[in-house]
């Protein structure tokens, strides 16, 4: 599985006219997962909606707007391309708010513009990816101490190769910056993504592996940067988004298998359970099961008194 | 005695405009005759290397003629890219062994040979190619192998997939009058296998 976690989202009209839509093209050259990147800069209100529209025909999650934890886990080799959404916040002011309804995006990235912000991003920000503009001269040195902190916290650094394909000056900067980044991170916690605005700025996954060897990684590390590491980013994002205090994961009821339905305290009226999809219920780990969601179960029991299948201790008490 | 070892790279050029030159059989009669006779001179009808030359001397440059991209032009584009990205040293390392063996303007597939020590330079240069003869494109490497045989087989396999895919698309559009699949496959096989060391 190859991932491209950065396809710049508002696709310009001229691209659509030529029939070479960067939203479509990655599938043809070997990527299975893409993330459309919506970039915001400056202060934004926390109530900004996710503007990204996926191509329905290519979507394997056409039903669920946000791929939930379970759909990521059950991912099989599929002909369709998996489409994700990503938000990149350009931060040039320490007071800026970076978590703009992050739950509606699959991946969250920040792009700090100066050294101080880069340091705080590495030390404190709860994000998945730190992206730097490698196609230009970086205004600061990358220090191992700073980056090590981020690596410890499981944050990934991104190399976007599209500037290198666009023009020669950025190519020089990118190769030099990327080599520095590889040296400082020691090849750990790196991902390579396209950052493509046009379809013609994409390259095939193995071409990128080769490009990685030019940037000073070896072939295996380079391959990990577009496969394993990207997968790790998605899992991290999923944990950040869906899992509360790293104990309880929530998922829509629709994702539950029929034999798990007893957890909801009802067996026969499954249709009703599917209707109330929107109200998310907690799918619990075994230990937390009894305690966490008794309110929901109690409500169910109150609703249909004749339901005898609920096997939770509390529910029985309610019936008496 | 130590052999000189090579890498063979099978690549695909994807053009932004997505245009395919008209097949020789679809051109007007007199043009077709001329082109085939001139193409036959080097004994390889699959590589219309002399077509463009011929047309530029006699006829005004038409749209369809610019679409015929030859091995020579691929070679030039690649050389320019090496020159730009890897400089004189890059050219020096590579130029003795680099040879574009095959390129078909119809399938946009090509095979090239380069010495094993420096194939990453070539691959990098291919990655950085942006346009060929003013047409924006991207180069996608499909296979890297130690012998030409495996590249040819990979090429045939790729052609087969493409034929199937396009047929399916054509059928779903409701186009009748398709050439039989076996015939097309045989054609592609013959064409690719004529390439020799």
Automatic annotation (TrEMBL), chain A:
UniProt xrefs under InterPro entries: Pol/histidinol_Pase-like, RNase_P_p30
Acidic residues bias spans: 303-320
GO molecular function: RNA binding
Localization of this protein: Nucleus
Keywords from the named record: tRNA processing
Superkingdom, taxonomy of origin: Eukaryota
Tagged with keyword tRNA processing: yes
Positions of region (Disordered): 270-320
GO biological process: tRNA processing
GO cellular component assignments: nucleolar ribonuclease P complex
Pfam families found in the cross-reference section: RNase_P_p30 (PF01876)
Family classification: Belongs to the eukaryotic/archaeal RNase P protein component 3 family.
Protein name: 1548_t:CDS:1
Species this chain originates from: Ambispora gerdemannii
From TrEMBL, chain B:
Main location: nucleus
Enzyme class, first EC level, given as a word: hydrolase
Catalytic activity: Endonucleolytic cleavage of RNA, removing 5'-extranucleotides from tRNA precursor
A Gene Ontology BP annotation from the UniProt entry: tRNA 5'-leader removal
GO cellular component, one term: ribonuclease MRP complex
Similarity annotation: Belongs to the eukaryotic/archaeal RNase P protein component 2 family.
Biased composition (Polar residues): 47-65
The name this protein goes by in its record: Ribonuclease P/MRP protein subunit POP5
Ranges for region Disordered: 30-65
Pfam families tied to this protein: RNase_P_Rpp14 (PF01900)
Location of the protein in the cell: Nucleus
PANTHER family reported for this sequence: RIBONUCLEASE P PROTEIN SUBUNIT P14, RIBONUCLEASE P_MRP PROTEIN SUBUNIT POP5
Function: Component of ribonuclease P, a protein complex that generates mature tRNA molecules by cleaving their 5'-ends.
Keyword entries, A-Z: Nucleus, tRNA processing
InterPro entries reported for this sequence: Pop5/Rpp14/Rnp2-like (IPR002759), RNase_P/MRP_POP5 (IPR016819), Rnp2-like_sf (IPR038085)
MF terms (GO), sorted A to Z: ribonuclease P activity; ribonuclease P RNA binding
């Amino acid at each position: 599985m190859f991932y491209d976690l950065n396809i710049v989202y508002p696709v310009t009209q001229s691209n659509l006219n030529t029939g070479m839509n960067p939203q479509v093209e990655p599938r043809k050259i070997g990527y299975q997962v893409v993330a459309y990147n919506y970039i915001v800069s400056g202060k934004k209100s926390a109530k900004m909606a996710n503007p990204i529209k996926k191509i329905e025909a290519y979507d394997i999650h056409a039903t669920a707007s946000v791929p939930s934890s379970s759909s990521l886990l059950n991912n099989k080799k599929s002909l369709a391309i998996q489409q994700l959404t990503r938000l990149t916040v350009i931060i040039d002011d320490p007071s800026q708010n970076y978590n703009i309804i992050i739950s509606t995006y699959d991946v969250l990235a920040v792009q700090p513009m100066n050294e101080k912000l880069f340091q705080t991003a590495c030390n404190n920000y709860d994000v998945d990816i730190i992206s730097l503009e490698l196609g230009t001269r970086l205004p600061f040195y990358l220090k191992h101490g700073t980056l090590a902190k981020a690596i410890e916290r499981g944050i990934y650094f991104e190399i976007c190769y599209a500037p290198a394909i666009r023009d020669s000056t950025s190519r020089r900067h990118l190769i030099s910056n990327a080599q520095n980044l590889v040296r400082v991170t020691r090849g750990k916690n790196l991902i390579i993504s396209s950052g493509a605005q046009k379809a013609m700025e994409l390259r095939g996954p193995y071409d990128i592996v080769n490009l990685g060897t030019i940037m000073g990684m070896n072939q295996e590390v380079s391959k990990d940067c577009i496969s394993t590491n990207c997968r790790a980013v998605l899992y991290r994002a999923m944990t950040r988004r869906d899992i509360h205090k790293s104990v309880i994961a929530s998922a829509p009821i629709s994702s539950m298998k029929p034999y798990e339905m007893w957890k909801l305290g009802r067996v026969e009226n499954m249709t009703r359970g599917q209707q109330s999809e929107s109200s998310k219920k907690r799918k619990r780990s075994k230990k937390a099961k009894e305690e966490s969601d008794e309110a929901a179960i109690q409500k169910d029991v109150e609703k249909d008194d004749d339901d005898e299948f609920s096997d939770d201790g509390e529910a029985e008490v309610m019936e008496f | 005695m130590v052999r000189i070892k090579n890498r063979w790279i099978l690549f695909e050029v994807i053009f932004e405009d997505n245009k395919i030159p008209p097949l020789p059989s679809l051109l007007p009669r007199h043009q077709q005759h001329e082109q085939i006779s001139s193409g036959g001179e080097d004994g390889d009808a699959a590589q219309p290397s002399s077509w463009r030359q011929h047309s530029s001397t006699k006829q005004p440059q038409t749209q369809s003629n610019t679409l015929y991209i030859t091995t020579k032009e691929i070679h030039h584009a690649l050389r320019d890219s090496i020159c730009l990205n890897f400089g004189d040293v890059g050219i020096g390392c590579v130029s003795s062994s680099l040879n574009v063996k095959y390129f078909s303007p119809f399938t946009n597939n090509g095979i090239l040979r380069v010495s094993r020590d420096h194939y990453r330079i070539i691959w990098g240069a291919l990655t950085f190619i942006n346009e060929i003869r003013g047409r924006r494109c991207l180069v996608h490497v499909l296979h890297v192998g130690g012998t030409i045989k495996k590249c040819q087989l990979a090429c045939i396999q790729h052609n087969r997939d493409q034929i199937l895919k396009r047929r399916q698309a054509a059928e779903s559009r409701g186009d009748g009058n398709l050439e039989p699949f076996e015939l097309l496959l045989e054609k592609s096989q013959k064409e690719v296998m004529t390439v020799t060391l």
